[in-house]
Amino acid sequence: MKRIWMSIGLILFALTLLPVSSAMAADKVIDGNLRVVIGSKSTGGDTYQNSAIVADALAKKLDINVKVDAVGASAAFQALDRAGVRGNTIMIFHDQAYLGYLYGKKGYFDIFDKYIVGPTVAINPGNAYLVPKSSPYQTIEDIINACGKGTKVRVAIQPGGVSEIGYTALKNAISLKYPGKEGNLVAVNTGSQSAKNQLLFDGQADLINGSVQANEQYTRLPADDQKAMRFVWLTARSATIQQAPAAGLGQTTRDQLLQFVEPNAKVPFDANSYFTFDKEFYFLFNKGLDPKVIAAIDEALTEIYTEGKIQETQKKSFFIPNFKPSVEAAAYLKGKMEMNKKIISSMQ
Amino acid sequence: MEYFADLSFTFFMLIPVGVIIGIIFGAIPGMTATMAVAVCLPLTYSLNLNQGLALLLGLYVGGISGGLVPAILLNIPGTPSSITTTFDGYPMTQKGEGEKALKIGIVSSLFGGLLSAAILAFFAPLLADFAIKFSYIEKFLIIFLALTVIASLSKNLLAGIFSGVLGVYISLIGTYDISFGGNGDIRLMPEFLEYWLADGFSLLPVLIGLFGLATIMEEAEKGIREEDLSSKMVLGSSIKFSFSVFKGQVINLFRSGIIGTFVGMLPGVGGSAASVLSYTQAKNFSKKPEKMGKGAPEGVIASESANNGLTGGALIPLLSLGIPGDSTTAVLIGAFTLQGIQVGPLFIGENMGTWHTMVLAVVIANFAMFLVMFFAIKYIAKVITVPKYILFPIIIMMCVVGAYAINYGVMFDVWTLLIFGIFGYLAQKIGIEVAPFIIGFILGKSAEIYFVKSLESFGTLTIFFTKSPIAMFLWVLIVVSVGYSIYSTIKNRRQDKFDGHG
Amino acid sequence: MDNGISSLFKVKINFAESHTFFPTIVFWVLLILLLLIFIFNGRPYLRSLRNGERKLSLSLAHVDKLRLPGTLVLTVAYFLLMDYVGTFFPNQGLGFLFVSIPFIFLLSLLYVHRIDRRKILAMSLNALIAPSVAWYVLAQLFNITLP
Question: Does the beta carbon of A259 lie under 8 angstroms from any beta carbon of chain C?
């Protein structure tokens, strides 16, 4: 029995030590470990990679443990609701966070209402649309015109978010030039990149959503290969791609990529402008989070980006650095959401 | 061999290090190879590409192999793909042949791993072109074929099929996931549960709940008697392992390894389908199918060589299409991107050195896995001599860790563990069969996606028969598999009647 | 005629409703199976019950009244407390560590037969060492998130 009491005593002793050690760390704005939950379940995807880069830099700057957890959108929002007030749990996600809401998907809310939108950190410039190399469509305009003349064009996308927004924009472009013909652009709803590629190989889709990173090598296959593809449109802004390394990605240079970006690839948004879409990564905080913590993160990120090392790391993984502090980022993203809301609500 | 000139001592050291960590992850119920690779990915930041790959591939091979240890010794699959290992592995342990079963498993794993590495090395680009011939329709048929195993695994045919279909049904609870092409709507639950169940039940917590927690509750019902497995063990050690077990199993080894490699190479079909399929085939071709499930070495052989066959298989689409064959290789893509290397159809041609290094690393990792496990077995097998009052609490704790960590920190997954622990405990009492249930649960979601998406595209059921020669061939396999299990049920019933009245 | 047959196999799926398509099919299959089970297994069983060939045994005599409910209670308490205690030490995995130690000890205490000093010592050591090692390796070394 003595030993039981001894072990219980040991535990109690350990317990009393803990508040002491955390009190010692109280001069830091964030005490304990920082957990970054992300809206993706994949630890191989762009959200995880980008978040890991940022988390690593933050950990060094703030001298705390930072851990990125790929829990997926709904679990991430829940974790933020539940544990986000203390500032030990924050979230990093991309435009999907509000696009899911605009497309009316379950588990998404108006993030500007429910959370605090924090700093943006990077852009993934790779969102792309591709056709088979043997396709009759040479440019994205050909596709818009074909739909206008009554040809059905099938686009493989993942519904309800970043992958669908380009499709919605194309529909909008068709309706601008050929009112009432936008129904000729048909979505083939599917999931992963491999499923989208597969639909193209099988002739079940004429156009697919993909990315520069995942599909660049397919564009370099010989034309007689069943798998060969061709870019027709990158949704990124011209200014974004211009910041990419000159060597581009793989063997496709930046100049080649610029061929597929506005104003070379024309997808009108309205009478005066082209539609563009940059997939941007940003922080989300619990509404009740102490502004001091947000300020601390803003400050830390400002220092990190001034030092300039993180930009190199990001560019090496084909991300475009894009730091905006909280207030600026929130206003900017709000505007972006309103813009996308226009075409989504008119095309549904 | 100029490709290997720049390989360092570190490279050769990192492989076994990876393998050992991988085995530990694989051996803990609920921890998987994917998690091992994801957790160690940051360690590769400081390594060069070859060294990073050495570590990660070691983890991959080790993680897949480690699952056989708890499957055989404790009847808890360490990873989803080792479910079928429990079917014969655990009965062997109960007979006091645990050590023998482990050795059979390890040898089979080595064989499956090497076979798939060889297939990877020589046929990768060719097979990748073959793999893209499998559209949703063919993938649905493969899943369907794997589901037919339910019939041959059932003790009572009707109850077994019911359990399997119930598994499918329960797997559908939650969101029709947009990342697989669903419409993102929630189904099969009242609204007040949506907060908890939006993501449905995760596979691993369900698995370890059904196998781990349920077993402990069963034992608790009986009062945790310490029956002396350990004395059996001493007796059992006279049952010497020798390679003669593999006599007559060469075809089984090859067939299972090839099935594993092949299924691994089809993105989205899922690793667990590989061992399930190869287990069925082993049963269908077996001379004594009635022994399968009661401690037949050939069951362990089929399951383990298939599940290590996965490793090489899943690397094929990754390296020759840029598409991961399973969740672990999906994490590997991250490792490549970090090093500024793209994977895709031109990867092998443009990165000959890396390609050769990877094949070499897989081969070394398999040997390292074999050596580590073979010499550790004597000690690992002692686990069952640990008294239950010490062992069970640790098992529950590790199950909790695994359940919580599988989705990177979701408390509901821990509750899932309990829910399915209780479900598993009660289910057996009313005749629901756990093995068919879990197979239905594992395959249910993919079956849905492939079935519904095929119909969405083609709009007619006939497409499943007429799509391609591959589809027709798969139908032949399905008919044979179903026909065989009906035949053997009837045969068994006659046998029973004969025994009963004769 | 040909058209008649092929139209029989025609299926049109509305994407917005597609989330209920497959579950509905599975649901009906389940019902049919249940019916079949009743016909082939249930009725003979009921008949044998009525004839008195078999008795419905609902006796709980063989159930260990302490260990089975004890396991359940301890496990539920374990899950609840671990989550609760964990909120005081955000993201450090300490909720897991601090609650696992007493849980393992109590569960061992519940399961053990013929308790003696040696067993108590083994149980206490196990309760202290196992969670500590798990916590140190996973939460500290590998940075895995624990409650």
Answer: no
